[in-house]
Amino acid sequence: MCDSGNWGVSGCPGGVSDSFATGNEKLFCDLTTENRPGILYGIGVGPGDPKLMTIQALETIRSCDLIVLPAVSKEECYAYRIVEQVCPEIADMPLLCMPFPMIKDAQKLELAHKRIYDAVEDYLRQGLRVGMLTIGDPGIYSTYMYMHRCAADAGWEARIVSGVPSFLCSIGKTGDFSGRKKMRKSILFRRRMTCVSHSVFMVHAFI
User: Rounded to two decimals, what is the model's pTM?
Assistant: First the structure.
């Protein structure tokens, strides 16, 4: 279980996991001494089927020094569960769990986002390649976008690794092609996924 109140690198934030720590005690120190600039990646893992992950996403994940999960634990992170099916080595990578609050209070939300970004920036300062997983595409209703803007504004290199969004998959499943004129479109966005069920809401558009 990840302790969201104590940021740290591991399979559980707050300390280094045993599997990672063995033989890697000086990893972060070594990276820092190389004077390598930190890089932040927003990595889209697609809508749910691991076969829809891109090769670029897999290669980027494997190249990262730290993987950020927008959840309280890897067990509760849907994006992580997608990745581990095609990239089992992620289980031995250092993870940072950062639950994003779903609240309407703008001031509290801003403070929470800043606290999360500050934790991420600490690792960028160490010269680490940090990858944040997100369902679908990082540019569409993604928690990653705040991190991206903050990192870019602070002068860090921030890159987006695009993923397949769910509404494009729905078009493929239904054959309801978006190129047809005067046709009502129903785009499905996944609001929340669980092992048992998921809820969706409809966004209607007209072309």
Answer: 0.72
